[in-house]
Fold this protein.
Amino acid sequence: MSGEHVRGRPDRLSVAAQRRLRAVSTRLGIRGALGRSALPVLAGYGRGLRVRVGASNIRVASPGEPVLERTVLDLLSPGDVFYDLGANIGWYSLLAARKVGPEGCVVAFEPLLRNAFYAQRNANTNRLHNITVIPAAVSDRDGWLSFFMAGSLMGRLDKDDFEGQARHRAKQDRSGGRHALVPVVALDSWLAQTGQRPPRIVKIDVEGAEVGVLKGMRETIAAVRPILIVELHGTRERLADELEAIGYEHRLIESDLPTREGGEYGLHVLAKPMPVA
């Protein structure tokens, strides 16, 4: 099981059991001991995993993102290297680790310590020893930055890469939450310092810091031309500009529309190097 993902259709019992679990989690919010327990995933691409969800209810008690999950798994092959930037509790890291197998590896970057803790526990629980969890945010510099937190599923660097991002962050700050200092790395310097294998596929879910991530991995992009999967957080136009500047073609995953014709939030962009003429 650890070397592959399950594509089979969930049987009726599994679906019914998942619905019951979802109803219970809605009432309890999967807090406390339940959130710290390794809950079974009963359906979907993660079926067979046991996942600690912490304060969130993602994946175990919700439908998840099946289109995105399928896209990630279809792109991966045994032996690949997958980087998960903004890994949260490591859901995509777990899916990827099963697909790439023991000859491949997954590097999960997550700045919130409690989420990074759960990501590491989830890897250990599922005996996926090809996952490395790095408790840091990714941007265009190394050091420390303030990180805005509004729950286990929403957090972002207090850093503006362009004017539109500054407006969004100001609005978000007014909605409440708290701040903490977190370590920050640029992928180019991190790879140079650690000697780790560079990625073939990079998933970027960094709540508005997408442009900074790309700026901090320009050398890596030039050298290995990885496939990029990027979640949009009000960065559509700037992200499209950056991708085209580095010679990448791109489209939305959920709708198969050009990036510039879709929405600003919650959609995912698939970006691949343009063919060499």
In short: The mean pLDDT is 84. The first helix runs from residue 12 to 28. DSSP finds ten helices and 13 strands in the chain.
